[in-house]
User: Fold this.
Amino acid sequence: MKPTFSKGGRLGFLHSTFDAFETFLFVPNTVTKKGSHIRDVNDLKRTMIVVIIALIPALLFGMYNVGYQHFAAVADPVSQAMWLKCWWYGFVRMLPMIIVSYVVGLGIEFAVAQKRGEEVNEGFLVTGLLVPMIMPIDIPLWILALAVAFAVVFGKEVFGGTGMNVFNPALLARAFVFFAYTPKISGEHVWVRGVTKGGEYVDGFSGATPLGYITDSVSSGAATLDFGGTTPMDWFWGFIPGSIGEVSTFCILIGAVILIWTGVASWRTMVSVFAGGLVMGLIFNLVGGNAYMEMPAYYHWLLGGFAFGAVFMATDPVTSSQTNVGKVITGLIIGMLAVLIRVVNPGYPEGMMLSILFVNALSPLVDYYVVQANVRRRNKRLKTAKQ
Amino acid sequence: MSKGVEEKEPMFSLKNMKLLWGPLNRNNPVIVQILGICSALAVTAKLKPAFVMAVSVTVVTAFSNLIMSCLRKGIPNRIRIIVQLVVIATLVILVDQVLKAYVYDVSKQLSVFVGLIITNCIIMGRVEAFALGNKPWPSFLDGIGNGLGYGLILIVVAIVRELFGSGTLWGYQIIPQWLYEQGYVNNSLMLLPPMALIIVGVIIWIHRSKNRDLIEK
Assistant:
């Protein structure tokens, strides 16, 4: 079958596509012959699969929560108690989003690789799953497709494909929707399935996220914060409206353990992002001013996409800092900026996306100075040794 | 500037036509020389202001080139920038007054950007690089050509941005109402300047892939 797809074969123009499926299904038998290389079982595919596995707890819980919130919204406590029904409801709603994301993204990747005569890269495997997980469940599919196309073309292919991108493509997709179709990704009607079209909220139920509630109560000048009837325990386990993957801090922590244990993602980045958020929260506690600033600092870890961003977005090996010191510095900046945006700017209830994208652009600069500092230090040592 | 034998050139010789049409494609001020980007981002959210801006810049470039070319032998080299500024500023004020008199609403939308035509790199660049060393007629054509080249990009960007950002063109609704009822939504990112930058980037991308020799190493 292979010769058909080799160069000059009958279907030779499809050789990139064939190669992608072949190496995906079988272990390739080609090895590097020139130069010195480190041989390791971990190739890009293995790495990506580990990230996918780490995402699964958050994904499964996210599906369950979609159903859970939906039945809460239409006041159906019987169905709400049946966890399998909730999960199935979420699964059915979520599946088209995942399919659209993969079809559009992989379609573009395959087309580009085919045109340039390159191998198809595995980079999209994770992005394709991340994108639906950071969108509201009610996002129209055509907007999702457009966002994925935008992110893959302008976030990745323009810079030269996987490994060359400056910005995290999944976050770029979300930023695109955020600025282009703001009403579809903010407010209180998009986070719960089945209430924008036809369905009605029961009295006393609002689909706003806890962060949305907080922003509202701050801008109305209330003395105490309104969390919409949710408690920090709910935020930790994830029984709140929100983007599909981000709700449960617990499930994200399971993913974090998998990532750190396998060594796929950097624990330095994760720890410093959480530390940065805490430090900024404590600074606000000291300054005081309004109820949001005086909120316990660790709340920020549990709310919104903070944990998801810290574990799955900030640790992206391509866009994050490459040096260890740089990882700590950029991590701290991400955490601090995210909390700063949340608290100070009422226009953006969630600051995680913007802060990670901003720091993505910053990290080559940080790396440069870290490397330069090292060069200076070693030059100095050389000089003292000579004397 | 030797006063030797000057060849009489026909008014629309091949060389002069090249001055006029070159900037529209291979020598475009925006996408090849990368000049005048800021106003290309600022005024292209709607087609009408972009068109008015394109016309204004063309007029200013053409006449500042013409005037400076006429004056070029009488100006001491050391003060030429000041003289250029006076000429360009006068023209910009004239354009501004005309716009206020005849298309007041557009002039209000363009607001400060009409005044800022004076800082448009294209005008100063063409006066410095071309008009000071060439005769009035070629300079005039060069000015028109560069103004049109700038305007062409402005209008293309504005068409894309207005069509997808507001669903209209020149203020008339293009995207049919039933599409909105099906759930289509305007892309508000198109109304923000970053998208203009991306569109200009895409235009450069297409243009370079058609003219491979222009690709920078």
